[in-house]
Amino acid sequence: MKIDFIVNDKPISVDVDPDMPLLWVVRDELGLKATKYGCGKALCGACTLHLDGDAIRSCSFPVQYVANKKVRTLEGLCLNKETLHPIQQTWIDENVPQCGYCQPGFMMAAAKFIETNDNPTEEEIKSGITNICRCGTQPRIIKAIKRAVAIKQSTQPKDKL
Ligand code: FES
Ligand code: FES
């Protein structure tokens, strides 16, 4: 089945089994390898990316449902060529990753989370982002998210604060 959609602001057309999970289309058909396979059951969050601005678990999302929609992966998270997204910047500043495998999914979940949470508590971050890290990086993730929220607020136009 031919499916047209947008990936990281570029129009894409693929001809694949409509039931193929979006994760495999992104990784194997488009060569965007940041998004990872973990559990394959929508449980761990390693495969998180954005679909029309929402964070979804792409291992369990048939590609047929992305027709004419916008997908964003970690490769497309930068605000522009010169500016990292606040989540990318604070992940560096806090040295968040250990093995790194879960991190793209966490970053995409966190990028969505900070859009709608202006002063999250640790508990709100834990309940809002249910991804799993086996290396135990969650304490640094929480610090990085709090710093990213502060960056977002400091760069927002005053009339939006
Ligand atoms: S690989 Fe998709 S949620 Fe685990
Ligand atoms: S950094 Fe290794 S699984 Fe999260």
Account of the 3D structure:
By secondary structure, the chain is α+β, with helices and mostly antiparallel strands. The chain folds into 2 domains: 2-76, Roll (Ubiquitin-like (UB roll)); 86-155, DNA polymerase, domain 1 (Orthogonal Bundle), CATH 1.10.150. 34% of the residues lie in helices and 14% in strands. The chain has 5 helices and 5 strands, in the order E-E-H-E-E-E-H-H-H-H. It has helices spanning 22-29, 86-93, 103-116, 122-128, 138-155; strands at residues 2-7, 10-15, 48-51, 54-57, 70-72. A 5-stranded mixed sheet has the order 2-1-5-3-4, sandwiched between helices. A hairpin with a 2-residue loop joins strand 1 and strand 2 (10-15). It starts with a strand and ends in a 6-residue tail after the last helix. The mean pLDDT is 95. The structure holds FE2/S2 (inorganic) cluster (2 copies).
Percent of residues in beta strands: 5-15%
| Share of helix, binned | 25-40%
Structural class: alpha+beta
Q: List the helices and strands in order.
A: EEHEEEHHHH
Per CATH, the architecture of the largest domain is Roll
Looking at this protein, list some descriptive labels:
2 domains; DNA polymerase, domain 1; Ubiquitin-like (UB roll); binds FE2/S2 (inorganic) cluster; alpha+beta; globular; 14% strand; 161 residues; 5-stranded mixed sheet; single chain
Secondary structure: elements and pairs:
Blueprint: E1 2-7, E2 10-15, H1 22-29, E3 48-51, E4 54-57, E5 70-72, H2 86-93, H3 103-116, H4 122-128, H5 138-155
Parallel strand pairs: 1-5
Antiparallel strand pairs: 1-2, 3-4, 3-5
One FE2/S2 (inorganic) cluster binds next to loops.
